[in-house]
Specification:
Layout lengths: L2 H33 L3 H29 L5
Helix pairs in contact: 1-2
Length: 72
Amino acid sequence: MTEMQALTVTLEKLYENQVAIAASIEELALWVEVRGNDEGTAENVRGALETLDRNADSISAAVQRLRGAPGQ
């Protein structure tokens, strides 16, 4: 496996982890909202999710560029 292939695979796995973390956090936010315990907590969680979503697009685009890179 070349260094470029290893980098691509690693970034792809990081992206998959980010998607899984976002889904888990979303479930926790919904759980907090349903129980009505703390609106601030749910808002903070949503802010973190926005960051994950914003970065996911960049990571996905980078993986796609690397997948199309010459020499693979």
